[in-house]
């Protein structure tokens, strides 16, 4: 089966409905109500790099489908579907009860023979065994747009039945942890260690961003431990726009484990 392409849009619910069906003795199932089937939740695991540049991910969905052989009737063929003898095809029966001598009441109830369907099956479908549904699968290509947020969802077509419309399958974006960056909305955060010398006289470092481009981290002033430098426009893309968040770099100063006596003397002369 060729994959279906479904864009995963921010806060956009794309709903797919199951196909209709016929009725009567032509082998098709009775008209379904608008009642929907159970909801399915499927996680789509993506890396931070994929959320930055965008990607396409193929997802195989195992779901319940209306039996292709009997088209949801549950019968071997249309010849094996018969009008219910108990209710005459109406799906209901009238029950008469005596309240007192000469006094009766009539009550309409669902036919207990056909279950309200109006038909009975003499021989069940050899494929689904009369269950009307089979287990199937469908491959979807999920389009991850640049800047999408974790836990965003969209809806597709889930379990189907002869008695109700296909339920929704909710695809949830799950972001994998990153070794360097953490994300807060459109902003990226990272920790960077610098030496005591760099903290005092400044530094110029180069790091690789999520798409491979270089970002320069530069300081010419004293940088205290815990200081956060904000680099505009080097965060995540803002979905459905041309904007970008910021990169927040928090510095930690790594102090030497020991200092020689002559170094102490030199430091005293410099810093005194």
UniProtKB/TrEMBL annotation:
<keyword id="KW-0479">Metal-binding</keyword>
<dbReference type="GO" id="GO:0051082">
    <property type="term" value="F:unfolded protein binding"/>
</dbReference>
<dbReference type="GO" id="GO:0006457">
    <property type="term" value="P:protein folding"/>
</dbReference>
<dbReference type="InterPro" id="IPR002939">
    <property type="entry name" value="DnaJ_C"/>
</dbReference>
<feature type="zinc finger region" description="CR-type">
    <location>
        <begin position="54"/>
        <end position="137"/>
    </location>
</feature>
<dbReference type="Pfam" id="PF00684">
    <property type="entry name" value="DnaJ_CXXCXGXG"/>
</dbReference>
<keyword id="KW-0732">Signal</keyword>
<protein>
    <submittedName>
        <fullName>DnaJ C terminal domain-containing protein</fullName>
    </submittedName>
</protein>
<dbReference type="InterPro" id="IPR001305">
    <property type="entry name" value="HSP_DnaJ_Cys-rich_dom"/>
</dbReference>
<dbReference type="InterPro" id="IPR008971">
    <property type="entry name" value="HSP40/DnaJ_pept-bd"/>
</dbReference>
<dbReference type="Pfam" id="PF01556">
    <property type="entry name" value="DnaJ_C"/>
</dbReference>
<feature type="domain" description="CR-type">
    <location>
        <begin position="54"/>
        <end position="137"/>
    </location>
</feature>
<keyword id="KW-0863">Zinc-finger</keyword>
<feature type="signal peptide">
    <location>
        <begin position="1"/>
        <end position="22"/>
    </location>
</feature>
<keyword id="KW-0143">Chaperone</keyword>
<dbReference type="GO" id="GO:0008270">
    <property type="term" value="F:zinc ion binding"/>
</dbReference>
<dbReference type="InterPro" id="IPR036410">
    <property type="entry name" value="HSP_DnaJ_Cys-rich_dom_sf"/>
</dbReference>
<keyword id="KW-0677">Repeat</keyword>
<dbReference type="InterPro" id="IPR044713">
    <property type="entry name" value="DNJA1/2-like"/>
</dbReference>
<dbReference type="GO" id="GO:0030544">
    <property type="term" value="F:Hsp70 protein binding"/>
</dbReference>
<keyword id="KW-0862">Zinc</keyword>
């Amino acid at each position: 089966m060729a994959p279906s392409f479904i864009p995963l849009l921010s806060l956009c619910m794309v709903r797919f409905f199951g196909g209709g069906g016929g009725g009567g003795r032509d082998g098709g199932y009775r008209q379904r109500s608008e009642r929907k089937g159970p909801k399915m939740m499927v996680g789509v695991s993506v890396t931070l790099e994929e959320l930055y540049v965008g990607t396409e991910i193929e997802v195989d969905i195992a779901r319940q489908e209306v039996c292709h052989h009997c088209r949801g009737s549950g019968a071997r063929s249309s010849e094996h579907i018969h009008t219910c003898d108990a209710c005459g095809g109406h799906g209901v029966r009238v029950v008469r009860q005596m309240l007192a001598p000469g006094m009766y009441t009539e009550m309409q109830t669902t036919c207990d023979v056909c279950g309200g369907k109006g038909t009975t099956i003499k021989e069940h479908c050899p494929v689904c065994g009369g269950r009307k549904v089979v287990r199937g699968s469908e491959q979807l290509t999920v389009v991850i747009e640049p800047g999408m947020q974790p836990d965003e969802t969209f809806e597709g077509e889930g379990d189907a039945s002869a008695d109700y419309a296909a339920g929704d399958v909710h695809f949830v974006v799950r972001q994998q942890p990153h070794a360097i960056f953490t994300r807060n909305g459109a902003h990226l955060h990272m920790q960077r260690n610098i030496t005591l010398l760099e903290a005092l006289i400044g530094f110029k470092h180069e790091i690789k961003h999520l798409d491979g481009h270089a970002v320069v981290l530069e300081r010419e002033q004293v940088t205290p431990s815990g200081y956060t430098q904000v680099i505009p426009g080097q965060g995540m893309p803002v979905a459905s726009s041309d904007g970008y968040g910021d990169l927040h770099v928090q510095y930690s100063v790594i102090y030497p484990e020991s200092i020689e006596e002559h170094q102490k003397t030199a430091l005293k002369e410099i810093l005194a």
